[in-house]
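TICKET: design request
STATUS: open
ATTACHED STRUCTURE:
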């Protein structure tokens, strides 16, 4: 289970946080997907081979379904047989860490870090053969780094990250055939390698080399080679490919298959909802939300309600969206996405004509939460700028986010640009471009993307850089690599805007994937 932390100056986008959340759940020693043999090997043989014991494997299988308490009960039984084994210590930490990072309950932080320190001390004393002990030590240290940064202990977190990364490198060097370490190291290499240039100095200072290519290679190895942890590696690789390499269809097929195989797995339902939302398939995403497993034993995941609120907003179901976001805010003890939820509550009220409620929710944006994730920063900027939104453009934006492209184009026909704000005059062609791209009318999409780029100049809005990013992808898909390179570089050269960190990261990964320019 690895969650990549960042320096305090490095905001995560919502996308990066989502990926981080999934990595929290997936980047650890996972349950075998093979049927157990009739005769189990003794614990020493399992440890020497780097395998979990059957009991620890069963506990982790429940954790992978987000069934926290059943996982703990199974691990208690296993601890009676092997209380100090590396596998038992690792899975125990996975359970605590997963609950901490998903619930975002700050009151649990000190207890979780203290338990991590006890497990690390026990692993130091353990004389267990094989790679699992060293792997567990690096994984738990990485968990600790993520927790420390998340809960604003950035200096400690940076040092823990350095230790964990170096320890995982050592595991790979000493045990090159131990595939699970490739999974975690590859994920670290990729995420560090995709950090925008403005923050590279910090990682270099820590001695943390990153490489997109090496990360994908290690992830691919862990995903392709049969091992107990192959399913987790397959999912992580699929998420990376969807997020940064535009391979959404492949990722969606894999997650759909997993969810169908395990309908009682809340994590797979979460993934299915999230991926369909990102692919603008609102109906499919809502179906995943409504059919998710519930009941005793499952971890409460309030963020599911926040995602559902967005989907309902896309459909124009404003009252239902309001209820879902109110439930999120009521159930969620954390600080992230609170401003974004208040902003979405504002939109639901404003678009439904309830100006009094809209103003109440607008004020709520400024009353709590942090601005670490880009969605929250966007909401805070909306509050502080006090520049009114355009109702037509806002409706069109929500329709496009939901995959309702033809209705969005119909909505945009009601937009009047004369005498309007520069922001609105930039947003209108950008929204048209996104709608046409969604419909597969790529010539029209290019026309409006280039129009947006030309009009944007150095304006501090995301429409120009996002247009350049999409033009880079379109040129890359058509083999126009030099043009693609120019557009991706244009993204990196753009001034600061609401989503610069995540947009720059995507452009950087895309540039790294292009062949070197020929020198003439």
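STATUS: resolved
RESOLUTION: sequence designed for all positions
ATTACHED SEQUENCE:
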């Amino acid at each position: 289970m690895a969650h990549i932390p960042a320096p305090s100056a490095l905001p995560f986008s919502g996308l990066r946080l989502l990926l981080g959340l999934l990595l929290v759940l997936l980047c650890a020693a996972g349950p075998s997907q093979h049927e157990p043999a009739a005769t189990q090997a003794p614990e020493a043989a399992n440890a020497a081979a780097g395998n979990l014991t059957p009991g620890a494997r069963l506990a982790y299988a429940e954790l992978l379904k987000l069934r926290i308490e059943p996982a703990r009960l199974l691990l208690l039984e296993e601890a009676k047989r092997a209380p100090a084994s590396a596998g038992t210590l690792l899975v125990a930490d996975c359970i605590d860490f997963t609950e901490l990072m998903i619930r975002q309950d700050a009151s649990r932080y000190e207890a979780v870090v203290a338990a991590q320190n006890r497990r690390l001390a026990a692993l130091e004393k353990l004389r267990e053969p094989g790679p699992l002990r060293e792997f567990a030590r690096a994984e738990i240290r990485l968990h600790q780094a993520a927790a420390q940064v998340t809960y604003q202990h950035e200096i400690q977190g940076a040092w823990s990250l350095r230790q964990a990364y170096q320890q995982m490198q050592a595991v790979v060097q000493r045990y090159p055939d131990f595939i699970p370490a490739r999974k975690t190291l590859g994920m670290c290499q990729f995420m560090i390698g995709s950090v925008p240039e403005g923050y590279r100095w910090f990682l270099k200072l820590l001695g943390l080399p990153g490489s997109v290519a090496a990360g994908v290679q290690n992830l691919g190895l862990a995903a392709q080679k049969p091992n107990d942890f192959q399913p987790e590696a397959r999912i992580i690789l699929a998420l990376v490919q969807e997020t940064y390499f535009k391979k959404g269809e492949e990722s969606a097929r894999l997650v759909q298959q997993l969810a169908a195989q395990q309908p009682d797995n809340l994590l797979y339902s979460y993934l299915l909802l999230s991926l369909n939302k990102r692919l603008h398939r609102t109906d499919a995403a809502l179906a995943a939300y409504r059919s998710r497993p519930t009941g005793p034993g499952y971890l409460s995941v309030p963020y599911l309600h926040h995602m559902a609120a967005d989907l309902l907003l896309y459909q124009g179901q404003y009252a239902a969206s309001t209820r879902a976001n109110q439930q999120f805010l009521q159930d969620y003890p954390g600080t992230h996405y609170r401003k974004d939820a208040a902003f979405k509550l504002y939109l639901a009220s404003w678009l439904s004509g309830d100006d009094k409620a809209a103003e109440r929710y607008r004020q709520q944006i400024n009353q709590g939460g942090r601005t670490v994730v880009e969605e929250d920063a966007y909401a805070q900027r909306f509050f502080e700028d006090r520049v009114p939104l355009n109702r037509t453009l806002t409706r069109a934006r929500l329709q496009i986010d939901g995959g309702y492209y033809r209705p969005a184009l119909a909505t945009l026909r009601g937009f009047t640009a004369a005498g309007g704000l520069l922001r609105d005059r930039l947003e209108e062609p950008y929204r048209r471009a996104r709608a046409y791209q969604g419909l597969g009318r790529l010539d029209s999409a290019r026309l409006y993307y280039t129009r947006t780029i030309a009009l944007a100049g150095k304006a501090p809005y995301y429409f120009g850089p996002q247009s350049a990013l999409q033009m880079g992808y379109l040129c890359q898909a058509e083999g126009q690599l030099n043009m693609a390179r120019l557009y991706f570089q244009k993204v990196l050269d753009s001034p600061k805007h609401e989503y610069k960190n995540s947009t720059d990261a995507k452009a950087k990964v895309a540039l790294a994937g292009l062949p070197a320019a020929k020198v003439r």
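CLOSING REMARK: Residues 1-42 have pLDDT under 50 and may be disordered. Residues 14-34+46-230 form a domain with the Serine Threonine Protein Phosphatase 5, Tetratricopeptide repeat fold (CATH 1.25.40).
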